[in-house]
Specification:
- The chain has 572 residues and is of the alpha+beta class.
- It has 19 helices and 17 strands.
């Protein structure tokens, strides 16, 4: 087909007001005819409207020329893409079929965290996300990210010998997952903004999974500290502030920022340390049911549901009753790590409707201080190991959410509830000596303890009996008090614990005093467990998220809950 025929198509289309796909047009037009086509098409486009004024005709001609220049540029780019690149197998998108466990190749990937100066000159294969990118002349720079670790990768004509290769690298979308093969080098000038001190001179680049270009939030915005935002504002620079709901609505992206990667590493470490310490102290891990017949903690804060055969049921508020039944079954020392459900309409910074409970229960020989002593040793172990094993993660969290390291004593401070009340009174805060401590009072007491004893971590024991659950053992010398305790970090409660009532007659009396129906569904089996002889015992319940939040002094528990559940949030 000659250029005249092509121009007839173009002119007809314009007269009809149709948009022309120039990329497609020029990709099939006979070579050498584009220039003539361009000139004739411009004239044809103007001649197509004989009633047009001279000024309008000139304007239309200029517009047509501009459009055809753009079309020519697209045609040139298309022609370049059509050129066969002898290095095409060194870059490009990996086919899905090659990612469907097609073959075991024996290739070895190096983690980005392992890239150091000792690997200079080595050829490595790494996988990561495109954290950032920039093009400069005949070079493209990619920063790859793997969890909290980053490294700069250089794609240059000098190394790859292909313009298309460099262009491919520069057009990758942020957050895409790529495999990079290249040689490790020590840059002349230190690379700023990456965790690793080396660069990778890229020889191969393949995209494993592409991200969309439009992201609901930018990771650089989500990873910026409030201090950096405020500092920039003073200098006249306005940064976007990513709010909590935006983060949680797009949690998959939000979890990728370095601080969140570090937070959940710390949380995982706390859970593991809890497990390891108790196992080393002859505790047995158990798994209690989360579907139960009645409330395990009493009260109305329970999620109710219909079970099989229309039986009423609820989600467990804690493993409390089953832990004690396991002790009655001669398990002696037990612990559990599992979900806990509370239907409380609490819209606070420290409450969730679902959280991970760290619970243990143990026989005691003489005194509930056996439990308190174990708690002190457990948490000192956890704190020490976190500071030793998570240095990098704690630094990463601190860079976005600055905090003072937790201060604690080698031997945990233990105070009586009455001593705490007296400290508050001396500081001018009147508190009911037989009442519970509210959140603000706990915080005030925490500050007083920190000032006097130089610790953020302490235990307060011998609480008034009236504010404790029905299964709490009364104090032998004063029935107004109990053999119970709470544990605090930075003035906020993380643990509630006590010696339990193991005598059936006393248990029935406590149930009556708390106005609980002993014949309530699910409670009768628990009560009967103490009919066959039960050893003295006690235990604790800990909120994993609360420990992680307070160790890092974060301002909201939703930051340490992977996918938080509160009264307003049931997704994602």
């Amino acid at each position: 087909m000659g250029s005249v025929s092509w121009l007839r198509h173009i002119s007809s289309a314009r007269v009809l007001g149709l948009r022309i796909d120039r990329r497609r047009f020029y990709s099939v037009m006979p070579r050498g005819e584009e220039s003539a086509a361009g000139a004739e098409a411009s004239a044809s486009a103007v001649e197509a409207s004989p009633g047009m004024s001279k000024k309008a005709a000139q304007k239309a001609a200029k517009k047509a020329e501009k459009e055809l220049r753009q079309a020519a540029a697209l045609a040139a780019a298309a022609a370049e893409e059509e050129e066969i690149d002898p290095l095409a197998d060194k870059y490009g998108d990996t086919k899905l079929e090659d990612l469907q466990s097609k073959a075991v190749t024996g290739r070895k990937w190096t983690e980005i965290s392992e890239l150091g100066t000792d690997l200079e000159g080595s050829t490595v294969l790494v996988r990561g996300r495109v954290h950032s990118k920039r093009a400069k002349g005949k070079m493209a720079f990619l920063v790859l990210r793997e969890t909290i670790h980053t490294v700069q990768c250089v794609v240059s004509m000098e190394n790859v010998g292909s313009k298309q290769f460099v262009k491919y690298a520069s057009l990758l979308s942020k957050e895409s997952v790529v495999d990079v093969t290249g040689n490790v080098s020590n840059p002349r000038n230190p690379v700023s903004g990456t965790t690793q001190p080396v660069e990778i001179q890229v020889t191969e680049l393949h995209c494993i999974s592409r991200s969309t270009n439009e992201l609901p939030l930018l990771l650089e915005d989500a990873a910026r500290s409030d201090q950096d935002i405020e500092k920039a504002a003073k200098e006249g620079i306005q940064y976007a502030r990513v709010l909590q709901d935006t983060r949680l609505n797009n949690r998959v992206l939000d979890l990728r920022i370095p601080a969140n990667q570090a937070i959940f590493t710390v949380q995982s470490e706390i859970s593991s340390l809890f497990h390891d310490f108790l196992r080393a102290n002859k505790f047995r891990q158990i798994h209690t049911p989360k579907l139960i017949a009645g409330a395990s903690e009493g009260g109305s804060a329970v999620f109710k549901l219909q079970y099989a055969n229309d039986q009423p049921a609820c989600l467990a508020q804690s493993p409390q009753l089953h832990k004690q039944m396991a002790i009655c079954g001669d398990f002696r020392r037990v612990f559990e790590i599992g979900p806990v459900f509370r239907a409380e309409k609490s819209f606070t910074h420290r409450h969730l409707c679902e959280f991970i409970g760290l619970d243990f229960e143990m026989e005691i020989k003489e005194h509930y201080f056996e439990i308190i002593d174990l708690i002190g040793k457990l948490f000192i172990y956890v704190f020490n190991e976190l500071n030793k094993n998570c240095k990098k993660e704690l630094e990463t969290i601190n860079s976005q959410y600055p905090f003072e390291p937790l201060q604690y004593l080698d031997e945990t401070l233990v105070l009586a509830f009455a001593e705490g009340i007296q400290m508050l009174k001396e500081a001018g805060f009147e508190t009911d000596p037989l009442g519970d401590l509210d959140t603000e009072t706990e915080r005030r007491l925490g500050l007083l303890v920190k000032e006097r004893y130089k610790t953020d971590f302490y235990i307060l024991h011998r609480y008034p009996l009236a504010v404790r659950p029905f299964y709490t053992m009364p104090a032998v010398d004063d029935p107004k008090y109990s053999n119970s305790f709470d544990v605090f970090i930075r003035g906020e409660e993380i643990i509630s614990g006590a010696q339990r009532v193991h005598d059936k007659d006393l248990l029935l009396k406590r149930i009556e005093e708390c106005n609980i129906d002993p014949n309530a569904i699910g409670l009768q089996n628990y009560i009967n467990s103490f009919s066959y002889g039960a050893p003295p015992h006690g235990g604790i319940g800990v909120g994993l998220e609360r420990v992680a939040m307070l160790f890092c002094n974060l301002d909201n528990i939703r930051k340490v809950s992977l996918f938080p559940r509160d009264p307003n949030r049931l997704a994602p």
